[in-house]
Amino acid sequence: MALRFSTCCVKNKAMASYEENPSQITQADVVVGIPSYNEATTIAYPTTQAGLGLLQYFGDKTAVIINCDNNSSDGTKEAFLQTPTEVPKIYLSTPPGVRGKGNNLMNLFAKVDALGAQACIIVDADLKSITPRWVRSLGEPLFMDFGFVAPLYVRHKYDGTITNNIAYPLLRSLYGRRVRQPIGGDFGLSGELVRIYLEREFWNEEIAQFGIDIWMTTQAIAHGIPICQAYLGRPKIHRPKDPGADLGPMFSQVMGTIFGMMASCEPCWRSVKWSKPTAVFGFGLGEIEQPPPVEVNADGLYRRFSEGITQFRGVWQRVLAPEVFAKLIEAAEIERAYFDFPSQLWAHILFDYAMGYHTLDGERETLLRSLIPLYFGKVYSFVLRTERMSLQEAEEYIEEQCMVFEETRPYLDERWGSTGDADA
Amino acid sequence: MPKILVVDDEEPIRLLYKEELTDEGYEVVSIASGQGLVERIEQEGPDLVILDIKLADADGLALLQEIRNRYYDLPVILCSAYEVFKRDVKAIAADAYVVKSSDLTPLKKAIRRALEGKSGERGKG
To answer: What are phi and psi of A4, to 5 degrees?
Structure first.
């Protein structure tokens, strides 16, 4: 068994990592990476499925499964290494005290590069619905000239509310690519793209945490990497989350990353007018299944929106354009049963917040916190509008919302342009 | 002058599109069959394809996949008399989905947007 501490050097930053490489693997064509923090009870399943997928679909290539961990204290390392697989395994960890999915993935990328891998597939450690086919669908396009593969799964209409109401419409209207699950957590990356990531153009503490997914997707688009979506058929089943209860720091990390990258990627998004579709790989592979229900606490969403009116009214007034603020107050005064957060108002708010993030440099933390109740208001409105809709109808509603974002883009262009050098 | 390839098995639709889109300043080539579509695209080199879903001899959604496999970035607008196919997940590979109507305003708008869309991606057609 090989145990070692190493230092992987990446641009402007060195991160020590702990490694266990029992099979002393020094080369691999394909890597499946599983980022984790305290996932001892769940990691065996995706590890097993990854091993089967690598054998079944990439049997002619050398492969390894890597768990990139945050020095978990619950026995994640042991659970991973003791999972029986024919494919060899490597365990990596950040040093004690260093947390974050982004940090885990940077360790993974350094290892992928060192192994000379052509393809890197990333899957979440708490996945309960992954099958060997997922490994095929996320990995095979990487050997067909695609450099970035995003997942496309069937999700419940209330699962992935940050994706549906923020990440997807913003990414699409800014960068012009329709990537339906830009923060899905399960991706395929070419070796070339991994090397681009290791250069860490624009990197911060938010990306080192949960901002990493939207950072990877945006970087792939900004670098002109050919992108496709892997149709995974089965729903993504992992730990259930109520959108009102489980927001945590993820919201601020994702939003901070999106807004922050708008400065570094300005030449890319400024030239975009309308979005284009993204090719889909894997139709007809496996059966389509319905996702499990997601419980949503609608009362809690509305309450937290209402509380925000008192708590953040002053911040909203400073960040939002006067006419947008007036529209927001008008919407807030509508009786609860008829409450509506129109898509155009939501687009104006997010574009104003993007501007605010650049111009109110010293207040970014407050600014992001003040966006949370607005997001709850938007999700509450989404729940009201879609409660009687089927998944497909809700999907159409999301698509219509995205078109409103695209049509509202000139508002952002005008505001951004009027500040001179907004990213200075 | 942007070139548009119309694939529709209904002659009146082909004539209507040809007349209206020519007036809009596009060069229009029409075909009635989905057979050998990818080869036809190779020959004609269109800037955009308008593709009927229910063709007499082919499934437009399957053809869309064939086009995407070869021409990653070629704008394709799906046209159908039926709204229901919009909900088929395969339709997301199209630039736009337009329900057929005598009013071609939505189609013309979709064409303008698709042709204005920018992609800086390398490779894949």
So the answer is: -160, 155
Measured distance CA(B87)–CA(A397) in Å, rounded:
11
| Beta-ladder partners of A67 | A34, A91
DSSP structure string for A121-161: EE--TT-SS--HHHHHHHHGGGGTT--EEEEE----TTS-H
How far is the C-alpha of B4 from the C-alpha of B84, rounded, in Å?
25
Q: Which domains does chain A have, with CATH numbers?
A: 3-281 (3.90.550.10), 298-418 (no CATH)
Residue B7 C-alpha, separation from nearest chain A C-alpha, in angstroms: 20
Partner-chain residue, chosen from A180, A227, A395, that has the shortest CB–CB distance to B121: A227
Number of domains within chain B: 1
CB nearest B89 (choices: A231, A272, A393): A231
Is B71 within the bounds of a domain? yes
- pLDDT, residue A228, reads 93
How much is the pTM? 0.90
Judge whether B97 lies within some domain: yes
> Does residue A270 have a pLDDT over 90?
yes
ipTM of the complex: 0.78
Range of the domain at B91: 3-116
